[in-house]
Amino acid sequence: MREEMIKTQLRDRGIQDEQVLAVMSKIPRHQFVPSEIEHLAYEDSPLSIGLNQTISQPYIVAYMTEALHLEPGERVLEIGTGSGYQTAVLAELAKEVYTVEIFDQLSKQAQQVLKSLGYQNIHFRVGDGWQGWAENAPYDAIIVTAAAPQIPRVLVDQLRDGGRMILPVGTLSQQLILGVKTNGHFQKIETIPVRFVPLIQVKSEEKK
Ligand code: SAH
């Protein structure tokens, strides 16, 4: 099923990065979904993982990862750990992954499966992704897997100059935005239309 996913959902639709394809053909995606829907893990769609959250569709995971062009020595920040599946893909391609999730329960579940698979280069935090993770900044790349109405400035601040970021932006209609930080400014392009769950806004915290 995994090989079929790689061919029909990824290769045939234009994913070309052999490293991304190799990594996704290795990672057991079915271990990242609730056991009742394990048989659906390789379907061409997002799936519910509880708490109104979803594991992203395989194509979107591949597309976003390919767009970041990660190098083996790089450090990447992920906002929205969710199931941890995208986290695993990143951990295979980068040196260190810092991942932030707002729901403690989802972070714990993701930690459990990622540890059982042997990953040792993933750092977990439960907290508000709008704030990024300042202590380990700047990052070579940032990926956000929930949609914000606008690009969070804090995340641009935590990207190194020359670093790349990909994130869905919008409310009902969303675009996947890809950009490079150049001389402190985020140079962006719109890529494809997408539908992500919203990046939750924590009201009690003051936003910068
Ligand atoms: N990459 C994940 C996507 C999960 S969906 C996967 O494929 O499994 C988006 C995730 O972002 C959810 O787990 C949700 O709880 C989390 N999230 C939403 N708002 C957040 C916020 N403000 N800070 C951190 N995580 C957030």
List the helices and strands and how they pair.
Layout (H helix, E strand, L loop, with lengths): L1 H9 L7 H9 L20 E4 L2 E3 L2 H11 L6 E5 L5 H9 L2 E6 L2 H13 L5 E5 L12 E6 L8 H5 L1 E12 L3 E9 L2 E10 L14
Parallel strand pairs: 3-4, 3-6, 4-5, 6-7
Antiparallel strand pairs: 1-2, 7-8, 8-9
Helix pairs in contact: 1-2
Bound molecules: S-adenosyl-L-homocysteine.
Descriptive overview:
The protein has 208 residues and is α/β, with parallel strands linked by helices. It has a single domain (2-199), classed as Rossmann fold (3-Layer(aba) Sandwich), CATH 3.40.50.150. Helices cover 27% and strands 29% of the residues. It has helices spanning 2-10, 18-26, 58-68, 85-93, 104-116, 153-157, and strands at 47-50, 53-55, 75-79, 96-101, 122-126, 139-144, 159-170, 174-182, 185-194. Strands 5-4-3-6-7-8-9 form a 7-stranded mixed sheet. The chain has a two-stranded antiparallel ribbon with strand order 1-2. A hairpin with a 2-residue loop joins β1 (47-50) and β2. The longest helix has 13 residues, at 104-116. It is globular. The N and C termini lie far apart (45 Å). It binds S-adenosyl-L-homocysteine (SAH).
Q: Main beta sheet, described?
A: 7 strands, mixed
> Please, how many helices?
6
CATH architecture: 3-Layer(aba) Sandwich
Let me know the CATH homologous superfamily. Answer: Vaccinia Virus protein VP39
Instruction: Identify the strand order in the major beta sheet.
Output: 5-4-3-6-7-8-9
Runs with pLDDT <50, length 5+? Answer: none
Helix-strand category: alpha/beta
| Number of structurally distinct domains | 1
- Number of distinct beta strands: 9
